[in-house]
Protein backbone atom coordinates (compact mmCIF):
# COMPACT_ATOMS: atom_id res chain seq x y z
CA UNK A 1 0.00 0.00 0.00
CA UNK A 2 1.25 3.48 -0.84
CA UNK A 3 2.43 5.43 2.19
CA UNK A 4 1.32 9.04 2.09
CA UNK A 5 3.30 11.80 3.72
CA UNK A 6 1.49 13.93 6.30
CA UNK A 7 2.24 17.63 6.17
CA UNK A 8 1.57 20.44 8.65
CA UNK A 9 -1.83 21.40 7.19
CA UNK A 10 -2.34 24.36 9.51
CA UNK A 11 1.00 25.85 8.45
CA UNK A 12 0.47 25.18 4.75
CA UNK A 13 -3.08 26.57 4.91
CA UNK A 14 -1.58 29.65 6.58
CA UNK A 15 0.90 30.03 3.71
CA UNK A 16 -1.90 29.74 1.15
CA UNK A 17 -3.93 32.20 3.21
CA UNK A 18 -1.09 34.74 3.18
CA UNK A 19 -0.79 34.56 -0.61
CA UNK A 20 -4.58 34.89 -0.92
CA UNK A 21 -4.58 37.89 1.43
CA UNK A 22 -1.85 39.57 -0.63
CA UNK A 23 -4.00 39.25 -3.73
CA UNK A 24 -7.25 40.27 -2.01
CA UNK A 25 -5.61 43.40 -0.61
CA UNK A 26 -5.07 44.77 -4.10
CA UNK A 27 -7.93 43.32 -6.15
CA UNK A 28 -10.43 46.10 -5.41
CA UNK A 29 -7.94 48.96 -5.41
CA UNK A 30 -7.63 51.43 -8.31
CA UNK A 31 -10.91 50.29 -9.80
CA UNK A 32 -12.77 53.56 -9.33
CA UNK A 33 -15.21 52.00 -6.85
CA UNK A 34 -16.74 54.75 -4.72
CA UNK A 35 -15.04 54.99 -1.35
CA UNK A 36 -17.80 53.92 1.03
CA UNK A 37 -18.75 50.90 -1.06
CA UNK A 38 -15.12 49.75 -1.44
CA UNK A 39 -14.48 50.31 2.26
CA UNK A 40 -17.50 48.18 3.14
CA UNK A 41 -16.43 45.43 0.72
CA UNK A 42 -12.83 45.45 1.97
CA UNK A 43 -13.93 45.67 5.62
CA UNK A 44 -15.35 42.16 5.37
CA UNK A 45 -13.04 40.78 2.68
CA UNK A 46 -9.89 41.64 4.64
CA UNK A 47 -11.22 40.77 8.09
CA UNK A 48 -9.36 37.49 8.45
CA UNK A 49 -10.81 34.08 7.79
CA UNK A 50 -9.10 30.80 7.08
CA UNK A 51 -9.22 31.18 3.26
CA UNK A 52 -10.13 27.50 3.06
CA UNK A 53 -12.06 27.76 -0.23
CA UNK A 54 -9.35 29.54 -2.26
CA UNK A 55 -6.74 27.21 -0.75
CA UNK A 56 -8.72 24.19 -1.97
CA UNK A 57 -9.05 25.68 -5.45
CA UNK A 58 -5.33 26.52 -5.60
CA UNK A 59 -4.24 23.13 -4.28
CA UNK A 60 -6.40 21.12 -6.68
CA UNK A 61 -5.35 23.26 -9.64
CA UNK A 62 -1.69 22.86 -8.67
CA UNK A 63 -2.12 19.12 -8.18
CA UNK A 64 -3.22 18.83 -11.81
CA UNK A 65 -0.37 21.04 -12.95
CA UNK A 66 -1.68 24.60 -13.18
CA UNK A 67 0.61 27.43 -12.13
CA UNK A 68 -0.31 28.99 -8.79
CA UNK A 69 -0.30 32.54 -10.17
CA UNK A 70 -2.65 31.63 -13.01
CA UNK A 71 -5.22 30.19 -10.57
CA UNK A 72 -4.94 32.95 -7.96
CA UNK A 73 -7.58 35.45 -9.27
CA UNK A 74 -10.12 32.67 -9.83
CA UNK A 75 -9.44 31.14 -6.40
CA UNK A 76 -9.80 34.55 -4.74
CA UNK A 77 -13.08 35.20 -6.53
CA UNK A 78 -14.54 32.31 -4.48
CA UNK A 79 -13.50 34.14 -1.31
CA UNK A 80 -15.41 37.20 -2.57
CA UNK A 81 -18.50 35.00 -2.87
CA UNK A 82 -17.93 33.48 0.58
CA UNK A 83 -17.55 37.00 2.03
CA UNK A 84 -20.79 38.19 0.42
CA UNK A 85 -22.60 35.21 1.93
CA UNK A 86 -21.31 36.05 5.41
CA UNK A 87 -22.32 39.72 5.08
CA UNK A 88 -25.84 38.80 3.99
CA UNK A 89 -26.10 35.99 6.55
CA UNK A 90 -25.49 38.53 9.34
CA UNK A 91 -28.22 40.94 8.18
CA UNK A 92 -31.25 41.59 10.42
CA UNK A 93 -33.47 39.73 7.96
CA UNK A 94 -31.28 36.62 8.32
CA UNK A 95 -29.28 35.77 11.44
CA UNK A 96 -29.18 39.35 12.74
CA UNK A 97 -25.64 39.03 14.08
CA UNK A 98 -23.78 41.99 15.56
CA UNK A 99 -20.39 40.33 15.35
CA UNK A 100 -18.43 38.48 12.69
CA UNK A 101 -14.90 37.23 13.29
CA UNK A 102 -14.82 39.24 16.52
CA UNK A 103 -15.60 42.56 14.82
CA UNK A 104 -18.89 44.41 14.24
CA UNK A 105 -20.74 42.77 11.36
CA UNK A 106 -20.81 44.75 8.13
CA UNK A 107 -24.26 46.30 8.63
CA UNK A 108 -23.32 47.31 12.18
CA UNK A 109 -20.08 48.95 11.04
CA UNK A 110 -21.68 50.64 8.00
CA UNK A 111 -25.47 50.44 7.57
CA UNK A 112 -27.92 47.88 6.28
CA UNK A 113 -28.26 49.22 2.75
CA UNK A 114 -24.48 49.53 2.34
CA UNK A 115 -23.99 45.98 3.63
CA UNK A 116 -26.54 44.63 1.14
CA UNK A 117 -24.85 46.48 -1.70
CA UNK A 118 -21.34 45.47 -0.58
CA UNK A 119 -22.50 41.83 -0.69
CA UNK A 120 -24.11 42.31 -4.09
CA UNK A 121 -20.97 43.98 -5.42
CA UNK A 122 -18.66 41.24 -4.07
CA UNK A 123 -20.80 38.57 -5.73
CA UNK A 124 -20.86 40.38 -9.06
CA UNK A 125 -17.18 41.34 -9.03
CA UNK A 126 -16.34 37.70 -8.28
CA UNK A 127 -17.66 36.63 -11.66
CA UNK A 128 -15.79 39.48 -13.36
CA UNK A 129 -12.57 38.22 -11.74
CA UNK A 130 -13.26 34.62 -12.74
CA UNK A 131 -14.01 35.44 -16.35
CA UNK A 132 -10.83 37.52 -16.62
CA UNK A 133 -8.68 34.45 -15.90
CA UNK A 134 -5.66 34.47 -18.22
CA UNK A 135 -3.42 31.58 -19.27
CA UNK A 136 -6.18 28.94 -19.34
CA UNK A 137 -8.32 27.91 -22.35
CA UNK A 138 -11.55 29.97 -22.36
CA UNK A 139 -13.68 26.83 -22.42
CA UNK A 140 -12.19 25.65 -19.12
CA UNK A 141 -12.68 29.06 -17.54
CA UNK A 142 -16.35 29.08 -18.56
CA UNK A 143 -16.87 25.55 -17.26
CA UNK A 144 -15.18 26.37 -13.94
CA UNK A 145 -17.20 29.60 -13.58
CA UNK A 146 -20.42 27.69 -14.27
CA UNK A 147 -19.49 25.21 -11.52
CA UNK A 148 -18.99 28.05 -9.04
CA UNK A 149 -22.28 29.69 -10.12
CA UNK A 150 -24.08 26.40 -9.51
CA UNK A 151 -22.42 25.86 -6.12
CA UNK A 152 -23.19 29.40 -4.95
CA UNK A 153 -26.68 29.70 -6.41
CA UNK A 154 -30.26 28.53 -6.01
CA UNK A 155 -29.31 24.85 -6.15
CA UNK A 156 -26.29 25.38 -3.92
CA UNK A 157 -25.46 27.81 -1.11
CA UNK A 158 -28.45 30.14 -1.52
CA UNK A 159 -30.82 27.16 -1.73
CA UNK A 160 -29.19 25.77 1.42
CA UNK A 161 -29.71 29.05 3.25
CA UNK A 162 -33.38 28.97 2.23
CA UNK A 163 -33.70 25.41 3.48
CA UNK A 164 -31.95 26.38 6.71
CA UNK A 165 -34.59 29.03 7.36
CA UNK A 166 -37.33 26.48 6.69
CA UNK A 167 -35.80 24.01 9.15
CA UNK A 168 -35.05 26.51 11.92
CA UNK A 169 -37.45 26.01 14.80
CA UNK A 170 -39.01 22.98 13.12
CA UNK A 171 -39.49 19.99 15.41
CA UNK A 172 -38.58 16.44 14.44
CA UNK A 173 -36.01 17.34 11.78
CA UNK A 174 -34.35 14.18 10.46
CA UNK A 175 -30.62 13.73 10.03
CA UNK A 176 -31.03 13.34 6.27
CA UNK A 177 -32.75 16.76 6.07
CA UNK A 178 -29.97 18.37 8.09
CA UNK A 179 -27.36 16.74 5.85
CA UNK A 180 -29.11 17.93 2.71
CA UNK A 181 -29.33 21.48 4.03
CA UNK A 182 -25.62 21.55 4.91
CA UNK A 183 -24.54 19.86 1.70
CA UNK A 184 -26.10 22.86 -0.06
CA UNK A 185 -25.38 25.70 2.35
CA UNK A 186 -21.78 24.79 3.18
CA UNK A 187 -20.81 21.82 1.02
CA UNK A 188 -21.74 23.13 -2.42
CA UNK A 189 -19.28 26.06 -2.42
CA UNK A 190 -16.51 23.96 -0.87
CA UNK A 191 -17.03 21.28 -3.53
CA UNK A 192 -17.12 23.94 -6.25
CA UNK A 193 -13.82 25.35 -4.93
CA UNK A 194 -12.15 21.96 -5.40
CA UNK A 195 -13.84 21.16 -8.69
CA UNK A 196 -13.25 24.52 -10.37
CA UNK A 197 -9.51 24.31 -9.59
CA UNK A 198 -9.31 20.84 -11.12
CA UNK A 199 -11.31 21.94 -14.18
CA UNK A 200 -9.07 24.96 -14.77
CA UNK A 201 -6.09 22.60 -14.74
CA UNK A 202 -7.70 20.26 -17.29
CA UNK A 203 -8.28 17.21 -15.06
CA UNK A 204 -9.95 14.20 -16.68
CA UNK A 205 -13.57 13.18 -15.96
CA UNK A 206 -12.37 10.31 -13.74
CA UNK A 207 -10.24 12.72 -11.75
CA UNK A 208 -13.12 15.19 -11.48
CA UNK A 209 -15.31 12.47 -9.97
CA UNK A 210 -12.66 11.89 -7.28
CA UNK A 211 -12.33 15.61 -6.64
CA UNK A 212 -16.11 15.94 -6.22
CA UNK A 213 -16.16 13.03 -3.74
CA UNK A 214 -13.32 14.64 -1.78
CA UNK A 215 -15.03 18.06 -1.77
CA UNK A 216 -18.40 16.71 -0.68
CA UNK A 217 -16.95 14.79 2.24
CA UNK A 218 -14.67 17.62 3.33
CA UNK A 219 -17.64 20.00 3.18
CA UNK A 220 -19.74 17.69 5.31
CA UNK A 221 -16.99 17.16 7.88
CA UNK A 222 -16.38 20.91 8.00
CA UNK A 223 -19.98 21.55 8.94
CA UNK A 224 -20.15 18.75 11.52
CA UNK A 225 -17.00 20.15 13.14
CA UNK A 226 -18.40 23.69 13.04
CA UNK A 227 -21.49 22.45 14.88
CA UNK A 228 -19.34 20.60 17.44
CA UNK A 229 -17.18 23.66 18.04
CA UNK A 230 -20.27 25.73 18.64
CA UNK A 231 -21.28 23.33 21.39
CA UNK A 232 -17.91 22.83 23.04
CA UNK A 233 -17.17 26.52 22.61
CA UNK A 234 -13.56 25.93 21.65
CA UNK A 235 -13.29 28.47 18.87
CA UNK A 236 -9.81 29.65 19.77
CA UNK A 237 -8.20 28.52 16.54
CA UNK A 238 -10.94 30.01 14.41
CA UNK A 239 -10.74 33.47 15.95
CA UNK A 240 -14.50 33.37 16.36
CA UNK A 241 -16.13 34.51 19.60
CA UNK A 242 -17.41 31.61 21.67
CA UNK A 243 -20.99 30.74 20.90
CA UNK A 244 -21.15 33.28 18.06
CA UNK A 245 -23.27 31.03 15.89
CA UNK A 246 -25.64 29.87 18.57
CA UNK A 247 -29.05 30.25 17.09
CA UNK A 248 -32.43 29.81 18.66
CA UNK A 249 -34.07 26.61 17.44
CA UNK A 250 -31.16 25.68 15.17
CA UNK A 251 -30.90 22.02 14.33
CA UNK A 252 -27.29 20.86 14.53
CA UNK A 253 -25.45 17.54 14.37
CA UNK A 254 -24.89 17.45 18.16
CA UNK A 255 -28.54 18.36 18.83
CA UNK A 256 -29.72 15.55 16.55
CA UNK A 257 -27.25 12.72 17.21
CA UNK A 258 -25.20 13.88 20.24
CA UNK A 259 -21.61 15.04 20.55
CA UNK A 260 -19.86 11.65 20.49
CA UNK A 261 -21.79 10.39 17.50
CA UNK A 262 -21.11 13.72 15.73
CA UNK A 263 -17.36 13.28 16.31
CA UNK A 264 -17.53 9.70 15.00
CA UNK A 265 -19.38 10.90 11.92
CA UNK A 266 -16.76 13.57 11.23
CA UNK A 267 -13.94 11.00 11.46
CA UNK A 268 -15.83 8.62 9.17
CA UNK A 269 -16.61 11.29 6.62
CA UNK A 270 -13.00 12.45 6.48
CA UNK A 271 -11.88 8.86 5.96
CA UNK A 272 -14.19 8.83 2.90
CA UNK A 273 -12.62 12.07 1.64
CA UNK A 274 -9.14 10.56 1.91
CA UNK A 275 -10.30 7.32 0.30
CA UNK A 276 -11.53 9.24 -2.75
CA UNK A 277 -8.04 10.59 -3.39
CA UNK A 278 -5.97 7.62 -2.22
CA UNK A 279 -4.52 7.17 -5.70
CA UNK A 280 -2.93 10.62 -5.75
CA UNK A 281 0.57 11.43 -4.57
CA UNK A 282 2.72 14.54 -4.47
CA UNK A 283 2.93 17.71 -2.43
CA UNK A 284 -0.59 18.96 -3.06
CA UNK A 285 -2.28 15.58 -2.56
CA UNK A 286 -0.40 15.19 0.73
CA UNK A 287 -1.58 18.65 1.77
CA UNK A 288 -5.20 17.93 0.77
CA UNK A 289 -5.21 14.71 2.81
CA UNK A 290 -3.58 16.41 5.79
CA UNK A 291 -6.03 19.30 5.51
CA UNK A 292 -8.94 16.88 5.68
CA UNK A 293 -7.47 15.30 8.83
CA UNK A 294 -6.81 18.73 10.33
CA UNK A 295 -10.44 19.75 9.88
CA UNK A 296 -11.51 16.87 12.12
CA UNK A 297 -8.71 17.32 14.65
CA UNK A 298 -10.10 20.78 15.42
CA UNK A 299 -13.15 19.07 16.91
CA UNK A 300 -11.14 17.18 19.52
C1 LIG B 1 -26.82 34.58 2.82
C2 LIG B 1 -26.86 33.53 0.53
C3 LIG B 1 -26.48 33.46 1.92
C4 LIG B 1 -25.84 32.37 2.34
C5 LIG B 1 -25.31 32.23 3.68
C6 LIG B 1 -22.27 30.53 4.32
C7 LIG B 1 -23.61 30.94 4.79
C8 LIG B 1 -24.74 30.87 3.84
C9 LIG B 1 -23.78 31.42 6.03
C10 LIG B 1 -22.72 31.59 7.03
C11 LIG B 1 -23.14 31.06 8.33
C12 LIG B 1 -22.58 29.73 8.62
C13 LIG B 1 -22.07 29.48 9.98
C14 LIG B 1 -22.54 28.83 7.68
C15 LIG B 1 -22.00 27.52 7.84
C16 LIG B 1 -20.78 27.44 7.01
C17 LIG B 1 -19.63 28.04 7.70
C18 LIG B 1 -19.03 27.29 8.79
C19 LIG B 1 -19.21 29.22 7.29
C20 LIG B 1 -18.02 29.87 7.84
O1 LIG B 1 -16.97 29.49 6.99
P1 LIG B 1 -15.49 29.56 7.47
O2 LIG B 1 -15.33 28.88 8.79
O3 LIG B 1 -15.34 31.11 7.72
O4 LIG B 1 -14.60 29.13 6.35
P2 LIG B 1 -14.03 32.01 7.75
O5 LIG B 1 -14.34 33.07 8.78
O6 LIG B 1 -12.83 31.19 8.12
O7 LIG B 1 -13.91 32.57 6.38
TrEMBL record:
Gene3D superfamilies: Farnesyl Diphosphate Synthase (1.10.600.10). Coiled coil: none annotated. Keywords: Isoprene biosynthesis, Magnesium, Metal-binding, Transferase. The keyword Cytoplasm does not apply. GO terms for molecular function: (2E,6E)-farnesyl diphosphate synthase activity; dimethylallyltranstransferase activity; geranylgeranyl diphosphate synthase activity; metal ion binding. It comes from the Bacteria. PROSITE patterns: POLYPRENYL_SYNTHASE_1, POLYPRENYL_SYNTHASE_2. GO terms for biological process: terpenoid biosynthetic process. Its EC number is 2.5.1.1, 2.5.1.10, 2.5.1.29. It is an enzyme of class 2 (transferase). InterPro entries: Isoprenoid_synthase_dom_sf, Polyprenyl_synt, Polyprenyl_synt_CS, Prenyl_diphosphate_synthase. This is Geranylgeranyl diphosphate synthase type II. It comes from Desulfobaculum xiamenense.
Amino acid sequence: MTQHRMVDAKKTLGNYGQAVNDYLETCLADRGIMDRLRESMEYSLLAGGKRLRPALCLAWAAHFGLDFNVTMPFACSIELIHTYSLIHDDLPAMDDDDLRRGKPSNHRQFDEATAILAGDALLTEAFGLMLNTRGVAAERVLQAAAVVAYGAGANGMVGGQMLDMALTGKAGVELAELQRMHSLKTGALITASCLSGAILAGATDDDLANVIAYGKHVGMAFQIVDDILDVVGDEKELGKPVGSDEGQGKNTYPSLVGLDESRDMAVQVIAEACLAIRGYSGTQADFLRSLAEYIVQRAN
